[in-house]
Design goal:
The chain is mostly helical. It has two domains: about 290 residues, Orthogonal Bundle (Fic-like fold), CATH 1.10.3290.10; about 60 residues, Arc Repressor Mutant, subunit A. It contains 14 helices and five strands. The strands form two sheets. A three-stranded antiparallel sheet has the order 3-5-4. Strand 4 and strand 5 form a beta hairpin. Helix 2 packs across helix 4 and helix 11 runs antiparallel to helix 12. The longest helix has about 40 residues. The chain is globular and about 75 Å long.
Length: about 375
């Protein structure tokens, strides 16, 4: 449905240029969303896929490794959208104080993303509301070090920003003036907690993502925080009990359509087109996550059986080291000994067995004393 532009412009001057900054109207959309026909079917398919994913996640005996891997995969992908070049292996080595294969600032950005997501999830688990305060806290962690650390981490911006171009005057999009940000974010927070608009948590997350990107309340890190909010909203709303759904890969693979739809919503008010795209992403991503989770769970069970069949007297220590690697899949021998509560000798012997069984391999510059769970 084309409702027309979902906001108005504030005309200002910056550096002698006339700037038209866009200020969105508060959510929810008016007229209300048309949830009928194919769009309703997409919504039902998405909710079904999320339900299947959440069901298996709550039953997994080995959640630690799966959650560890998913959070870090999302961190890498979301940061790559912003231009970083680091990989999953770079991040894991960085977590052992060994950043190899990527610029240090790139790996720090990805590590910050992991910390920001974990901070948000921990605060929600403690009962803290999903609020502007929490959003600022997450942003503060995200930009706590490396590139962006001088762009007022944890604070809404106090100057004009823009998207595309070299200055506001030739930008592809100019968000609200900084004087409007607090009002926009206050309305945004009210929408997050509204209970009388008939919207499901999934639809609220879809709309909130666009609104946050439109407001662009920070000087840096808006894209990453905006993508984090999707997962946080779904967990906070009880749609997911574990953070296993991340749309960064879908957005990255469909980058042009993603940005085109954000622009289209602002100009035409066609929220339904955006929702069609978003819900397709949720369905595909949830189905892929379900398949990966089932595969990893089966692999871990198979690993245990192979260890029990081959370890002999080392079975107990090998299983303890295996469990330690499920919690943190890249470890040095001393760290593995601490995690498994074994002697260094017993840990080294168990790790040799796991290498022989091709369940771990050696990494690091000496290729001898650090091990990665494969």
């Amino acid at each position: 449905m084309r409702r027309g532009e979902i906001g108005s412009y504030r005309v200002t001057k910056i550096g002698g240029e006339v700037i038209r900054a866009f200020v969105p109207v508060p959510l929810p959309p008016k007229p209300a969303l048309r949830l009928d026909g194919p769009l309703q079917q997409r919504l039902e398919s998405s909710l079904l896929a999320l339900g299947r994913l959440d069901s298996i996640a709550t039953l997994l005996p080995d959640k630690a490794l799966i959650l560890y891997a998913y959070v870090r995969k999302e961190a890498v992908l979301s940061s790559q959208i912003e231009g970083t070049q680091s990989s999953m292996s770079d991040l894991l080595l960085f977590e052992l104080d060994e950043a190899l294969g990527a610029p240090l600032d790139d790996v720090r950005e990805v590590s910050n993303y992991v910390a920001a997501l974990e901070h948000g999830l921990r605060r929600l688990a403690e009962g803290f509301p999903l609020s502007n305060r929490l959003i600022r806290e997450i942003h503060g962690v995200l930009l706590s070090r490396g590139r962006g650390s001088t762009n007022t981490p944890g604070e809404f911006r106090r100057s004009q920003n823009w998207i595309g171009g070299t200055r506001p005057g030739n930008a592809a999009y100019v968000p609200p003036p900084h004087t409007e940000v607090l009002d926009c974010m206050s309305a945004f927070e009210r929408f997050l907690h509204a209970e009388n608009d008939g919207l499901t948590v999934l639809l609220r997350a879809a709309l909130a993502h666009v609104q946050f990107e439109t407001i662009h309340p920070f000087l840096d890190g808006n894209g990453r925080v905006g993508r984090l909010l999707i997962t946080l909203l779904l967990c906070h709303g009880g749609v997911l009990h574990e953070p296993l759904l991340y749309l960064s890969l879908f957005f990255k693979e469909h980058r042009t359509m993603y940005y085109d739809l954000l622009t289209s919503v602002r100009r035409t008010g066609d929220w339904e087109a955006w929702l069609t795209f978003f819900l397709e992403g949720v369905t595909l991503t949830a189905e892929a996550a379900l398949s990966t989770t089932q595969r990893l769970s089966g692999m871990l069970q198979s690993d245990r059986q192979r260890i029990e069949a081959a370890a002999g007297r080392r079975t107990g220590s090998a299983l303890r080291v295996h469990n330690a690697l499920k919690t943190k899949p890249i470890l040095s021998l001393p760290a593995a000994a601490r995690e498994a509560k074994l002697s260094f000798h017993a840990t080294a012997s168990a790790m040799d067995l796991l290498v022989t069984l091709a369940r771990v391999y050696r990494v690091g510059p000496q290729n001898t004393d650090k091990f990665f769970f494969s």
